């Protein structure tokens, strides 16, 4: 993948994509933030993969060249992935299709950074969207029927498969519902960690308490506090206070 100033007369098929006068004027005033994406054909000409409207605007402005990212990979599936992403990012369309398209691009050898640059989005968005491929087919089917909100998908993707299956019984899965399940699971995990922490500071072991171990437990609990609910936070505060007392006694 490389960025070049491509001569418009080297593009094999001139696009007829409709563009508004406002779009053309905006390009004339500000240029393009995001280069078009092209692939070099066997005849030496270039095929537009992403950016037909931008190209049409440049043609209307009688430009000779246009910034373009040249794709070396010639797999048709990769081309399809580019087209899907281009349409989805422009129209804010289907998160599942975006995720599948990004997965195809990563399988074709593109890094998250390269994909982000290609479509003018953040690397974080690429990574988060890719996580949606971990959502089970049953929930994807619900999403396609409008029974799962787009904002819920990234949260659902954080859950193990068994936890995701439990959500299927819901008539509709909203962001709030998914958030409740994720938070509940985190709290269950926190409870297990807290119980282990308590074992490490059992009063019976106070006389031989290891200061460095206590410090490790304390740091871990403070990290949990950043995202824990109020009930869990209060429990952690009490444990940390006990740790402080033990540390004082073992000095």
Strand order of the largest sheet: 1-4-2-3
Mean pLDDT: 77
Number of helices: 12
What structural class do helix, strand and pairing data support? alpha+beta
CATH superfamily of the largest domain: Conserved hypothetical protein from pyrococcus furiosus pfu- 392566-001, ParB domain
CATH architecture of the largest domain: Alpha-Beta Complex
What would the CATH topology of the largest domain be? Conserved hypothetical protein from pyrococcus furiosus pfu- 392566-001, ParB domain
What's the assembly state of these chains?
single chain
Principal-axes geometry comes out as: elongated
Overall domain count: 4
List the helices and strands and how they pair.
Layout: E1 2-7, H1 21-30, E2 36-40, E3 46-50, H2 52-60, E4 65-71, H3 76-91, H4 95-107, H5 112-119, H6 123-131, H7 137-144, H8 153-156, H9 161-166, H10 175-200, H11 211-225, H12 230-249
Parallel strand pairs: 2-4
Antiparallel strand pairs: 1-4, 2-3
């Amino acid at each position: 993948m490389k960025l070049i100033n491509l001569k418009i007369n080297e593009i094999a098929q001139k696009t007829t994509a409709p563009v508004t006068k406002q779009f053309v004027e905006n390009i004339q005033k500000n240029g393009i933030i995001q280069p078009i994406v092209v692939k070099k054909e066997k005849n030496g000409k270039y095929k537009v993969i992403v950016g037909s409207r931008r190209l049409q605007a440049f043609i209307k402005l009688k430009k000779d060249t246009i910034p373009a990212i040249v794709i070396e990979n010639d797999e048709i599936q990769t081309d399809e992935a580019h087209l899907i992403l281009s349409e989805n990012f422009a129209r804010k369309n289907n998160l599942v299709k975006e995720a599948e398209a990004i997965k195809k691009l990563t399988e074709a050898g593109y890094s998250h950074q390269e994909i982000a640059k290609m479509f003018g989005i953040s690397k974080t968005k690429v990574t988060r969207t890719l996580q949606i491929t971990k959502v089970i087919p049953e929930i994807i089917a619900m999403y396609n029927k409008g029974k799962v909100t787009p904002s819920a998908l990234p949260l659902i993707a954080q859950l193990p498969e068994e936890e995701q299956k439990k959500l299927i019984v819901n008539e509709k899965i909203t962001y709030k519902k998914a958030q409740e399940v994720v938070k509940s699971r985190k709290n269950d995990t926190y409870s297990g960690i807290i119980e282990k922490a308590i074992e490490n500071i059992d009063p019976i072991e106070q006389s031989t308490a290891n200061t460095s171990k206590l410090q490790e437990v304390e740091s871990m609990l403070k990290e949990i506090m950043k995202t824990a609910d109020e009930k869990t936070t209060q429990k952690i505060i009490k444990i940390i206070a006990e740790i402080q007392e033990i540390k004082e006694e073992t000095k």
